[in-house]
């Protein structure tokens, strides 16, 4: 007995529907496993990062060396910001374990510790900024959002400090607008970044955040040792150059005439090279 074409199509549709349901369940199980792996990683690494944190505090200017040598980090700073990098005593990322069923949101805090300085009138402070990763409803891709946090800006920034400009009233003059825009480009404006007001807050806030959590923080020891190794190599090169530059100004033992200056040898050698084919 031949199978009716309509019945065959219904059978195939039901089979395809069953496959998609099982595939959806498989994806759900996969997400649960990935969440368990992420929580396991956090539990294992967080204690190690805490131990490392205590050790790094014992190394003078550790974070200054790391940040000053990091080419990408400087892209998010204004020139005036560079003078305050040396007052960063510590940077720490604290990942949060997510035990909520069905919630795969990544959450973490970034803490900056600053030392005070009478020289540049900068306050001793510890600032912790909270973040979470959400799915963008427009693109369907993950993106970061953050809660603004208060930070005491250097007093030299009073003129461009966005918070101070707002406190004194509406931004009415051209100078106010210019100073406000300049202040929003400063690294210190990153602490008030939310990720919810594109074009009206610190530029590239998400890029800087991901640079910190994915690169600078986990690989900070590598960046520090690379910078120290480069300094040692430069010092060795300087010593070699210094030794080779010493001139023998003693008189010739045979005839008592002074030896020909080294510049003459260099000129003669250069001339020979130019004449060579």
UniProtKB/TrEMBL annotation:
Protein name (database record): Vacuolar protein sorting-associated protein 75
Entry-linked PANTHER family: TESTIS-SPECIFIC Y-ENCODED PROTEIN
GO cellular component: cytosol; H3 histone acetyltransferase complex; nucleus
Region of interest: Disordered: 230-277
InterPro entries hit by this protein: NAP-like_sf, NAP_family
MF (Gene Ontology): acetyltransferase activator activity; histone binding; identical protein binding
UniProt-listed Pfam families: NAP
Gene3D superfamilies reported for this sequence: Nucleosome assembly protein
Superkingdom as given in the UniProt entry: Eukaryota
Compositional bias segments (type: Acidic residues): 231-255
GO biological process assignments: DNA replication-dependent chromatin assembly; double-strand break repair via nonhomologous end joining; nucleosome assembly
Sequence similarity: Belongs to the nucleosome assembly protein (NAP) family.
